[in-house]
């Protein structure tokens, strides 16, 4: 309690220091007046009495200082005085202040904007009660043709749920897209299928109504649905009466039992939630994400041990050795794919801030050199070195906090710009990204650290010289130590800029190579429309094929259409059906060999511009009553029938083919990029869609139109055709193939563009920094240059001398930066396509460009040095 009382006493004295100072001054004056009266009574003259009283009383200023020291916290008052003095000094040099503030505003603003994104995406917890107890439970294979998210197979989920002892609740879920009809125009919306304990696991209940009850995942009882607040408002006008009523999803009537709170859209921006009943299917096995809420007091390590024990008890199967038992924080499901990119961007803007700090430090060094005489005078008058350093640090902190305030304004503009520039859907948890108190605290801490970082070295340099030397030389000389410090900072700037430029160059080269990849088809003037048919309405293959045939017939009649075709999974969709097959000759496939299995309509290869290498395309006669045929890609031929004629070979997609299951190869086509431009072309076996018997492979279909001119012009007519054939079927997507290709390259384009922007910013700051260093060097070496010219040096000699010094700095910076880039750019390897992190051409081009820009920035100070008049330079010596 005594310490608290003392603190409060000191705070009170600090707040009332003006009153105390006034009272102290009055007391000093009273004592001095009394002493003066005593001398007057003794017969001393009035003027002499005043002087004698002041002399006997002592140093009034010293007594005032001793009195103020008893109040405590003098450092705070001194700091306020330093700030006032610093503000005056900065105000006297507005150009210097503006340049320093703008430089820091760019560096701090860029870092603040990136931190706001990182904070919202990576650092904020999930918006559920006690999110630290919710985990993903995974025992999924990491190999094979499909990239599966963390999860459990249906069989493993049911067995783990029955044996688990550590989780309060366990739930599995998946995501689909469903057609909503009967509530305005037909629309396809994202939906989640979840087990009945899903909402209990997250501890999130509907705002209106209720969640699923136990048993509502059983057939006959699963015709219920929970709506999102967004869908409820957009399609049902916030009508509370919707509860208990039926809506049509994929043609099935489902009763609305609940409305979720605003903002709840987990998983995958879901707009409706439907019950998921998991049952073992001996022919199919689905792997889905599984979440669990740990019981109170149970650690993640205990849950990990339980899952590993469970995995060891599982029977031996083919995929078991490839699977890893993992207990993963739920947030990883959303942010795992974006973490690497965000951390790279955060490191890049950190480099920009370092360059900005080096730049401002150089400015302060230049300014401090001109203030040496001032520092020497203040030191002579009794100021200690720490007192002088503190004064200079106060000025640098004022600049950094002003730059931080301006950086906050940059961040307010930059955060929405970053989100808008990012490819749609690539940044998760966008609703959590905002400039808030945490971002403000980050900026404040960054400004504090930055102010100390760039202000400390100049402050120490300005206060370390001998006082008499500084007074005699008037602060006009330059020491070798000064030159070394400024040169070191300039070299550091160049090296940091080179690292950033190299990273941006690698990403740009990777993007250009990716964009130049031949997809295996001709995308120009090609329009696509994707439709998903619900199995509740179209229950068998003939019904689906009749729908497709009618759509194709109507589309082919449209004006300006050169060709119309259909494929179940279009190229570059990132989805595909894959599997193995049998060869009639008994030939064994290579280990792990699988192929894409798209089904297409007649005219597909012509419409897509896929090159036919041998044989023929599918015809209308290749229907369900004709012998089965296939067309294979040339990579299949290379793998199985190299040097042989593949036409007439027979294969089967069935595990145990019957005589009618064999399919004859009638053509060979070029390979196509199915999963993305950056991925290899998978071997493919094409089947005519009229010969496919399973509805699963037909319900999702993309229609393609080859037009003679602008493909975008037929979009409205394609929608009209769909409405005329079935007015209840919405379009999943409609877009030109060119735009779809652009979508596949949007992420690397965004990465290259953003890192390139940071690199250009770094280059600009470095150019300004080099110019500043050389310009100051010319000013400080004016006398030396004047002497050289007076002794006969030509202007070209002066130019060579200045450029030689600049060239040394540039070469050292480039060499140091190249070494740093060689080590640092390896973190970009996973983002590069057909480009190595140590690509010699990129390193050479970036180094040459940076050296050229730096030398160009050196030319202006060098030309100024050529114009130095020796008479003017020597006049004041």
Walkthrough of the structure:
The protein is an alpha+beta fold and 877 residues long. The chain folds into 5 domains: 2-72, no CATH class; 74-125 and 339-477, no CATH class; 131-330, no CATH class; 500-519 and 738-877, no CATH class; 534-728, no CATH class. Strands 16, 18, 19, 20, 21, 22 and 23 form a 7-stranded mixed β-sheet that branches. Helix 12 (339-370) packs parallel to helix 15, helix 13 (372-380) packs across helix 16 (467-473) and helix 17 crosses helix 25. The chain starts with a helix and ends with a helix.
N- to C-terminal distance = 66 Å
Share of helical residues: 40-55%
- Structural class call reads alpha+beta
With helices defined by DSSP (H or I, 4 residues minimum), what is the helix count?
A: 27
Strand segment count: 25
Mean pLDDT: 83
